[in-house]
Amino acid sequence: MSPKEFDRLVEESLDVIPRRFRRLLDNVVFVVEPEPPRPGLLGLYEGRPLTERSVSEPVRMPDRIVIYQGPHERLARDEQDLRRLVRETIWHEVAHYFGMDERQVRRAELRRRRLLGRLGRR
Q1: pLDDT for 100-110, tens place per residue?
Q2: What residues does 67 pair with on adjacent strands?
Q3: Which of 86, 91, 99, 116 is deepest in the core (most CB within 10 A)?
């Protein structure tokens, strides 16, 4: 997939974030990069979680959510699986933005998968 096509896939996949949370995303940008700085990463949240911010903080650079194209493409079995992986990565990194640590995110992902399974969606 070309970088431009992957950018579009990431942009389309942002709808995985429920609207009520999308409205709260402030001063955060989504970036696509070809490869991660270390193996094993599909995405990375860089910034200060919303739960740790103060209204008295000075203006600062936007937080970043980076989605890495290479690892997604290597893991995906087909285009549908690629779309699923990207959506899961976005959901995971946005959870970090909202202040969840890795353990909390993993538990929430498990609950979300169970719920989607019961609803017949994956």
Answers
A1: 999 999 998 88
A2: 32, 43
A3: 86
Q: What is the pTM of this model?
A: 0.88
Residue type, 79: E
Asked whether the beta carbons of 13 and 90 are under 8 A apart, the reply is yes
Q: What are the angstrom distances between the C-alpha of 92 and each of 70, 89, 103?
A: 18, 5, 11
pLDDT tens-digit readout, 74-111: 999 999 999 999 999 999 999 999 999 999 999 988 88
Q: Where are the domains of the chain?
A: 3-119
- How many other β-carbons are positioned within 10 Å of the β-carbon of residue 42? 20
Pick the CATH number of 3-119 from 3.50.50.60, 1.25.40.10, 3.30.2010.20, 3.90.76.10: 3.30.2010.20
In this structure, are residues 7 and 86 in contact, taking their beta carbons and an 8 Å threshold?
no
